[in-house]
Amino acid sequence: MRPWQANVLLTLSIAALMALGALLTVNWLGGQQQRILLQQQEEINRGQMAQQLGSAIIQDLAPLANRNPRILNLLRKLGLGQAPAGTPNVKTGRP
After folding, report:
1. Can you give 16-45 as a three-state secondary structure string?
2. Domain limits for position 73
């Protein structure tokens, strides 16, 4: 093999190793980004679950609010001023 052929082969080998290093780095960064996105999605899912549970709890508490002033005050603090129609009123006992 001639010296210039060895130099070309060495240069191509170094370029291939650098390309491999670049690909491995991009792959690692992509995996890291994917893990971050997965964590964010899990947080969103937990928030949605908490919101659904919160809504269900509020719906369960709403009929009790007219019979229990403490629950009514709690719902008012949360920005929910009135119990749903059809629940008995505390003073009259009528819907």
Report:
1. HHHHHHHHHHHHHHHHHHHHHHHHHHHHHH
2. 3-77
